[in-house]
């Protein structure tokens, strides 16, 4: 799936999301590998199949194999670190901060790409996963490696757009499924109808894959 096809999958009432998605390509503060690595890392963090596939295709045009591998490692490592360090942050007992994490995270020390790029991708994933401590750590490393405030803000904005695309597609799929489900499948409840003001369009559906994304679920935010 391409980004153009992804835009077509968005429902008519998601104009803001569609426009914001189009604007990603216009970001000037990031190099092409930084930009498309951040979008793909964000997509991987959402876990939404169509979004992951579309941004994987886009990333292939701008990243060499070493870069694509590093993006995957950033998403994988942050999926672990964001849960661990977000939990420590939320716990009021600071005793746990002194305990060794005992988590292997060699990708942070040897990412195989410029440190700035890897930190940018890690920041994007941490934004979606809602880890305040990780956001602080990666923002500091970005600035330490020559990154700017504009780059940090653009990465967070990109992550928010990609997450919105994933959430919108999931909401639309569920609403479409509810409307098209036969009344006999309602489990004793009244037949499903589209909410007032929501128009469900008939579109060919791709293969349905269970959505298990981190970004589209609500979670406690670090503060």
Structural summary, described in words:
This protein is mainly α and 223 residues long. It has 9 helices and no strands. α3 packs across α5. The C terminus is likely disordered.
Give the rounded overall mean pLDDT. Answer: 86
Task: Compute the separation of the termini in Å.
Answer: 37 Å
Q: In percent, how much strand structure appears in the residues?
A: under 5%
Order of helices and strands: HHHHHHHHH
Give a short synopsis of this structure:
With 223 residues, the chain is mainly α.
List keywords for this structure.
223 residues; mainly alpha; 0% strand; globular; disordered C terminus
Write the layout of secondary structure elements.
Blueprint: H1 3-9, H2 15-23, H3 32-46, H4 49-60, H5 65-90, H6 106-109, H7 115-129, H8 132-144, H9 149-180
């Amino acid at each position: 799936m391409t980004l153009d096809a992804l835009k077509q999958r968005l429902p008519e009432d998601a104009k803001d999301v569609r426009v914001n998605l189009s604007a990603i390509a216009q970001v000037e503060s990031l190099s092409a590998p930084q930009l498309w690595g951040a979008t793909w890392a964000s997509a991987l963090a959402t876990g939404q199949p169509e979004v992951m596939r579309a941004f994987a295709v886009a990333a292939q045009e701008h990243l060499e194999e070493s870069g694509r591998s590093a993006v995957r490692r950033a998403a994988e490592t942050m999926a672990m670190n964001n849960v661990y360090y977000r939990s420590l942050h939320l716990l009021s007992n600071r005793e746990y901060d002194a305990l060794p994490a005992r988590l292997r995270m060699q990708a942070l020390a040897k990412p195989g790409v410029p440190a700035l790029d890897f930190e940018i991708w890690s920041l994007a994933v941490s934004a979606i996963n809602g880890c305040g401590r990780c956001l602080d750590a990666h923002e500091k490393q970005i600035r330490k490696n020559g990154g700017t405030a504009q780059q940090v803000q653009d990465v967070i904005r990109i992550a928010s757009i990609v997450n919105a695309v994933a959430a919108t597609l999931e909401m639309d799929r569920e609403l479409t499924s509810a409307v098209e489900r036969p009344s006999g499948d309602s489990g004793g409840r009244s037949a499903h109808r589209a909410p007032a003001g929501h128009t469900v369009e008939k579109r060919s559906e791709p293969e349905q894959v269970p959505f298990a994304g981190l970004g589209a679920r609500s979670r406690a935010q670090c503060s």
